[in-house]
Every structure is written in structure tokens, then in C-alpha cells.
Design brief:
Layout (H helix, E strand, L loop, with lengths): L3 H12 L4 E5 L7 H10 L4 E5 L5 H11 L4 E5 L4 H10 L4 E2 L5 H8 L5 E2 L1 E2 L2 H9 L4 E4 L2 H4 L1 H8 L7 E4 L8 H5 L7 E3 L5 H6 L2 H12 L1 H6 L1
Parallel strand pairs: 1-2, 1-9, 2-3, 4-5, 6-7, 7-8
Helix pairs in contact: 2-11
């Protein structure tokens, strides 16, 4: 079993790859490889494929096997069974909208690093006690946005966040400018209309814009 400290180090490395981790909903697994290649070419390497559709695991499997440079993860993980299935498919990290006791117990026993979600300071403190120093802040904008994360920076300096939920190209720099934000998660990089149309050059263009966001935030 891999220690939580080691898994958190892996998560830190993954979140540092780019300013944005795209949250992708794949309805057709045939779209997974060209979509991921477009994102990687645009400078976005870490890709979260959600399990919201039946094609999710097949998409993860295809990206892991065929897209050089991609670090594919799994999203919307709710239990240990999904965690194990995603790891077997080739996922290198997992993301959850929250953190149930059973999921955390399963993650303790699994080699796959988990980025669990929180919406309150109390939830963040509970996960810190279990060794989690990197957390998903979800749903970021409805839960309080950048102002709430800024308020947490001083009392919870040990934690870095990946805010997700309501993040866009326009408001991402506000989050990325905060000292406790490692990156943001967003669905705008691979929208359903571009996936359905096979507009891979359009996705690459969105990725290139997103890859510059840290520079803009530092600005």
C-alpha cells in the first residue's frame, strides 16, 4: 500500500502540470483519443474523465494506452469499486465531489491518489487530519468562490486547492492568483458541441488559451 504522503506528492505533481485540469464528459469513447491528443498538444496534460457516462472507463483505457504525454484521471468517483476499476483501466489519479468515510477507507487501501472534494472549512480540516494536503473545492463558485478560498489561506496554510464548478476562462485568473490554489478544474476546454463535431483544432485552441492562465493570473 502506498502511503498517503506519497500519494499527495503525486497529486501535487499532477496539479502542477498546467493551470487547468479539464473535466471531460465522454459520450462516445471513439472521441477520447483525438480529444486528449488535442489537449496535450495545446499544453494541457492532466485530463479528468468523469464516470457520468457508460463510456468513461473505455475512454480512460484508450487515453492511457494511446496518448503520449497525457496523465489521465477519473472523476466523479463515489466508492471503492469505481476507484479500483479506474486504476485497472489506467487512471493515474482520482477526483471525487466529496468525501465519504467508505470512500476514504477504500482510498487508503488503493495505490491511486485521490483528490477529494470539500465545500467547508470543517470538511477540509477533517481531510487534513487524514493526511490530505490537496483538495478539490467544489462547487467552487456556488460555495463561495475565490473570496472564500482567500479567507481559508491563512488559517489552513497546509492545504492547496483545485477549485472546480463554475470556473471559466474569464474567472479562472481570480482563483489562480490565490496562494492556496494549485490549479482549477473546468469543463470549457472540451465542450460537448466540439466533441460531437470532432472539432479537435477548436479544443487545441481552447487548451492553448488555458495553458497561459497562470501567466495572466501573475500578471
Amino acid at each position: 500500500m502506498t502511503s498517503q504522503e506519497t500519494k499527495q506528492h503525486r497529486i501535487a505533481e499532477i496539479l502542477a502540470l498546467a493551470p487547468v485540469v479539464p473535466v471531460v464528459i465522454v459520450d462516445d469513447a471513439a472521441h477520447a483519443v483525438p480529444m486528449a491528443k488535442a489537449l496535450v498538444t495545446g499544453g494541457i496534460r492532466a485530463i479528468e474523465v468523469t464516470l457520468r457516462t457508460p463510456a468513461g472507463l473505455d475512454a480512460i483505457r484508450a487515453i492511457a494506452a494511446e496518448v503520449e504525454g497525457a496523465v489521465v484521471g477519473v472523476g466523479t468517483v463515489l466508492d471503492g469499486t469505481q476507484l479500483e476499476a479506474a486504476r485497472t483501466a489506467g487512471a493515474r489519479f482520482a477526483v471525487s465531489p466529496g468525501a465519504s468515510p467508505r470512500l476514504l477507507d477504500a482510498a487508503d487501501d488503493d495505490e491511486l491518489p485521490l483528490l477529494p472534494g470539500v465545500a467547508t472549512a470543517g470538511e477540509a480540516m477533517t481531510l487534513l487530519e487524514r493526511g490530505y494536503s490537496h483538495l478539490k473545492f467544489f462547487p467552487a463558485v456556488p460555495a463561495g468562490g475565490a473570496r472564500l478560498l482567500a479567507a481559508w489561506a491563512s488559517p489552513l496554510p497546509q492545504i492547496r486547492f483545485c477549485p472546480t464548478g463554475g470556473i471559466s476562462l474569464s474567472n479562472a485568473p481570480e482563483f489562480l492568483a490565490l496562494p492556496n490554489v494549485a490549479c482549477v478544474g473546468g469543463s470549457w476546454l472540451a465542450p460537448s458541441d466540439k466533441l460531437e463535431a470532432g472539432d479537435w483544432s477548436g479544443i487545441e485552441r481552447l487548451a492553448r488559451e488555458a495553458a497561459l492562465l497562470r501567466r495572466i493570473a501573475a500578471g
